[in-house]
Amino acid sequence: MKENILVALDGSECGERALGAATKNAQITDSRLFLTYVIDWSPYTFNTPEENEQRHQRRESEIQKASETIVNPKAQELRDAGLEAETVVRHGKIAETLVNLTSELDIDQIYIGKIGESRLQTMIFGSVTAALVQASSVPVTVVP
Amino acid sequence: MGRVFLALGLLACSATNAFAGIDEAINSATAPIASFIGKVVFFKVPIGDAALPVVVLWLVVGAVFFTFYMRFINLRGFKHALQLIRGDYADPKSHGEVSHFQALATAVSGTVGIGNIGGVAVAVTVGGPGATFWLIMAGFLGMSTKFVECTLGVKYREEFEDGHVSGGPMYYLRKGFSDRGMEGFGKFIGTFYAIGIFIGALGIGNMFQSNQAYVQLNNVSGGALDGFGWLVGLILAAVVFMVIVGGIKSIARVTEKIVPFMAIFYCFFALIVIFMNSAAIPQAVANIFAGAFTGEGVAGGALGAMIIGFQRAVFSNEAGIGSASIAHSAVKTNEPVTEGVVSLLEPFIDTIIICTITALVIGTAQVAAPGFAGDALGVAMTSAAFEREFTWFPIPLAFAALLFAFSTMISWSYYGLKGWTYMFGEDERGQTIYKIIFCGFVALGCIVQLGPILDISDALVFLICVPNILGLYFLAPIVKREMESYFARVESGEIKNFRNSGS
């Protein structure tokens, strides 16, 4: 059955393994892949006026960098292999943004790598992967 | 590096004596100019025993007019402002741009400063408890003025090819008036405003702040820093230099994080102090209302209290000066009205919340222990009111004052820069020259006591209210049209509420 599969990339090997697993699934089911990169960003920080002024340009360059170095090359590889692949780059909190994309893009399942977080980070902020699994309305495959 | 600082220190040390001479020379040269400008700007109309400065009247009349003309936008827009801050209307596709919360936080950290701690004490001393009532009233009316100026700032800003933006009153004055066929006049008052904000940025946005920070540190250390103004000045200037010229964002980021924390810390302890004096609360509140309408013991009676309250409110929340409009212009948005609505919250936070809390701390202390502060005035008086309950409080309070001063300087360096680039163009080298001048004035603020120069700067900041509000009158119909169209689209759902739509 043809599905929309979202793959969360983070530029690490973990993300690539998640992509590998998702690709296998897509080849079998002839599904469409959405390669996604979320740039960690919070609307609740405190900036100087100068930072605010430069924010728009910085955002553009962040998106460009993520697209050119991470998402686009992978998507091209997949398309060359005859798969359907689209790319999404967004700013936001990772788990929350992925959940929002699920309904926006009509996603059927999510593949995500076990993001390399230290124990301390997890203790303080909670794990991104765990948060996603909790909040997601579609099946989530966590690839170690 | 250390050697450089040592050398600088020695240089400054030997220069301290020379500075004393310079002080006097500059003071005597500028005093007549200062007193002339002061007399013109703060020209007072005597009404009974009270003297009403015309410029204060000009600001108040403007605020009242905008409140009615915008049909109480300060009340109507309040809930929507909170929704915008919460991100209800933020399209996920545009995440990563400056959020409404960030725009507000930046503008607020520019206005929350020494005025909130010390200015209120001055108001209560001079204008009696009743001044507090009028202070709150002015904050409430000022919300409408802010709405108009911040909406216009975004609407008429200049966007350059590389994507950076410059905005503020100088731009809306020039473009707004030339749209109405008064090109020459628009250019004139635009430039006039730019000069005013530039000098204001060196004075009350800079020297006054660094000077007050030094005075606080010296007070709390029991006079240990007497004669070390040059050292405090150099350190402050060096830190400001690192942020605005060196682009060391981490320092700015750290202060920008500590400042809201300090503001919350301040309000938290203020509320505790108020409740520790809870027996005095009813009397203190009664004094505020009674004083507002009778003005007992105040020169000029109720009107005197009113004038003091209004004047201090403007000093504190800057509504009508147009500075916040510059900060909000930096934000990328398709709807200028949203920035205006968000900016409503600035006088609310600055004046109605923080100033009122300070006033209550002082008011309850006055009821519980009349004459508690002795001869202390300004920040020292507020500090004494806290010290009654917490003997250690003056130290964190001095630290808070230092940080408030620092963040105000960073914000005003940007306002002044925009005035500079308006006059001299966006050239990088010119901007660096401005920033170095700015840092020089930071150090100068601690080293020399330049009363008259500060008076000139003070007067000029009030003087730029005149063209600014004049422009606001002319452009108010445009703002009103934008406002009505915006709220109609919110109502109809054309402007989408992303939280309610469940996506």
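DSSP finds 21 helices and four strands in chain B.
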